[in-house]
């Protein structure tokens, strides 16, 4: 319960500090790249594969025809579509390098996710060539899930049909906001009609789950524009909604300098946008499954949440977990549970390393015992809203101590070794996880590294 002296506004002011989104632990800025090597990484991949042959595969397709100014992704802006085929050739070579680690055993693909960039930048025939090339070296796991990110403005019926025929059943549409002024400032244009058409086509073809990506905190957004965007979204009725907080990091993403801080709703105003959107989404029968994510009751994501098997990875929340997530393509991040690895960030370096037969990972982290324990705690807090501390674990007292202020502010409750997030605490999940984050607590540099928590 929130103490009577502390109002929501005061909580927002107090906790609106730079905070990670905890799509991994340790978070990328705290990876120990010095201790990491390609050999250590491939050993980890092999060991994890030996324990479970199931793999989740993330494929990064970095090209976009124009830059959305708010973008935080690794992209290459070009209108030259001749880049497609060489890039696919490199992706398939990288995949073959991984497959070669498995000593002739065929991996079982539990998931494929095409992210970007804009996967629908690619011609459908090229996407087919890519997926057929991947599947030539792997089997598909029962109950697999293939999904892709789609830009409503360039997703054709042929894209949808081609990917459906290859086994894709889920897509995620990047909407962000329907308001014309907001779309103008963020340089991302798609009309309600375009979105509606893609949805109708996808449903007709047989896609089972459609996600909308929406963002709050964008330049020029107001309560009225957010209400309008949510209303339109509700009318279209996606199965899932990701309602993300805009991350303002212009020192990393100079595109964000196309507008100024004065254009951005911040602090209490930004939280009001979220609260309004959330209230409207919940009123339409969606369930809150975790930070920024909502799903219909019959969607797999909600079922995973209910059955406490939700997972969180670099793409956000997922309805399944494979111990081995391999990311191929520029800047992709891989996760072998005991280690993370990230690929080079430019297309040129990527092609060069692949051409030389070198796995293009350039940084990473090998998790020690403490990292593994904290990783589990943070995952449980993010996915289940509660953490059962391991009996007698060395950090318990310190964690409870670190949480004492959040307990006083009504964001968490502690009963013995069980730490639970309260209803109010759900708006401050990032702050709660920070109390577990040993690497962050030992550092003083977080202000330069992360966007604001709210
Ligand atoms: S937001 Fe998406 S479509 Fe826009 S530039 Fe970034 S990756 Fe490309």
Structure commentary:
There is one protein chain. Helices cover 38% and strands 22% of the residues. The chain is α/β, with parallel strands linked by helices and 454 residues long. The strands form five sheets. It has a nine-stranded mixed β-sheet with strand order 9-10-8-7-6-5-4-1-13, with helices on both faces. Helix 3 runs parallel beside helix 4. The relative contact order is 0.17. The model has no long low-confidence stretch (mean pLDDT 93). It binds iron/sulfur cluster. Residues 64, 67-68, 71, 73, 75, 116-118, 151, 174, 188 line the site of iron/sulfur cluster (SF4).
Number of strands: 19
Global mean pLDDT: 93
Radius of gyration: 22 Å
Number of helices: 16
User: CATH class of the largest domain, please?
Assistant: Alpha Beta
First-last Cα distance = 20 Å
Query: Structural class per helix/strand content?
Result: alpha/beta
Q: What share of residues are in beta strands?
A: 15-25%
Strand order of the largest sheet: 9-10-8-7-6-5-4-1-13
The low-confidence parts are: none
The name CATH uses for the topology of the largest domain is pyruvate-formate lyase- activating enzyme
Ligand names? iron/sulfur cluster
Biggest beta sheet attributes: 9 strands, mixed
General shape: globular
Level of helix content?
25-40%
CATH architecture of the largest domain: Alpha-Beta Horseshoe
Count of structural domains = 2
Q: What's the name of the CATH homologous superfamily of the largest domain?
A: tm_1862 like domain
Topology:
Elements: H1 8-15, H2 38-51, E1 54-61, E2 63-64, E3 76-77, H3 84-100, E4 108-116, H4 124-135, E5 139-150, H5 157-165, E6 168-176, H6 180-186, H7 192-205, E7 209-216, H8 223-236, E8 240-245, H9 267-283, E9 287-290, E10 293-295, H10 300-306, E11 311-313, E12 316-318, E13 324-328, E14 333-335, E15 339-343, H11 347-355, E16 361-366, H12 369-384, E17 386-388, H13 396-408, E18 412-415, E19 418-421, H14 429-434, H15 438-441, H16 446-449
Parallel strand pairs: 1-4, 1-13, 2-3, 4-5, 5-6, 6-7, 7-8
Antiparallel strand pairs: 8-10, 9-10, 11-12, 14-15, 15-16, 17-19, 18-19
Helix pairs in contact: 3-4, 3-11, 4-5, 5-7, 8-9
Bound molecules: iron/sulfur cluster.
């Amino acid at each position: 319960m929130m103490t009577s002296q502390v109002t929501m506004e005061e909580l927002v002011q107090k906790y609106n500090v730079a905070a990670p989104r905890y799509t991994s632990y340790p978070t990328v800025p705290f990876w120990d790249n010095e201790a990491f090597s390609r050999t250590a990484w491939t050993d980890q991949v092999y060991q994890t594969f030996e324990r479970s042959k199931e793999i989740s595969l993330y494929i990064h397709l970095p090209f976009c025809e124009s830059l959305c100014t708010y973008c935080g992704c690794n992209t290459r802006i070009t209108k030259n579509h001749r880049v497609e085929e060489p890039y696919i050739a490199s992706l398939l070579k990288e995949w073959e390098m991984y497959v070669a680690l498995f000593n002739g055993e065929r991996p079982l693909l539990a998931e494929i996710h095409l992210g970007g960039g804009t996967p629908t930048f690619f011609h459908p025939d090229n996407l087919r060539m890519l997926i057929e090339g991947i599947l030539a070296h792997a089997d598909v796991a029962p109950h697999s899930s293939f999904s892709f990110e789609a830009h409503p403005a360039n997703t054709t019926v042929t894209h949808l049909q081609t990917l459906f025929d290859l086994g894709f059943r889920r897509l995620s549409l990047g909407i962000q906001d329907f308001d014309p002024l907001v779309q103008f400032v963020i340089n991302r244009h798609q009309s309600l009609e375009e979105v509606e058409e893609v949805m109708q086509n996808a449903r007709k073809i047989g896609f089972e789950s459609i996600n909308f990506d929406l963002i709050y905190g964008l330049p020029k957004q107001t309560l009225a524009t957010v209400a309008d965007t949510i209303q339109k979204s509700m009318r279209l009725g996606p199965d899932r909604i990701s309602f993300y907080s805009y991350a303002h990091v212009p020192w990393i993403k100079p595109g964000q300098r196309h507008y100024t801080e004065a254009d951005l709703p911040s602090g209490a105003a930004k939280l009001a946008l979220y609260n309004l959107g959330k209230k409207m989404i919940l009123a339409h029968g969606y369930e809150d499954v975790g930070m920024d994510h909502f799903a219909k009751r019959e969607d797999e994501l909600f079922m995973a949440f209910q059955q406490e098997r939700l997972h969180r990875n670099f793409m956000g929340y997922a309805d399944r977990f494979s111990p081995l997530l391999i990311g191929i393509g520029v800047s992709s991040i891989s996760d072998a549970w005991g280690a993370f690895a990230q690929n080079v960030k430019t297309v040129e370096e990527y092609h060069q390393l692949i051409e030389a037969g070198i796995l293009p990972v350039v940084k990473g982290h090998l998790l020690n015992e403490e990292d593994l324990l904290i990783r589990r705690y943070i995952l449980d807090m993010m996915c289940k809203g509660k953490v059962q501390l391991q009996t007698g674990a060395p950090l318990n007292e310190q964690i409870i101590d670190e949480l004492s202020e959040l307990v006083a502010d009504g964001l968490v409750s502690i009963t013995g070794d069980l730490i639970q997030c309260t209803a109010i605490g759900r708006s401050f999940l990032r702050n709660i996880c920070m109390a577990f984050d040993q690497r962050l607590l030992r550092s003083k540099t977080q202000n330069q590294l992360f966007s604001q928590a709210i």
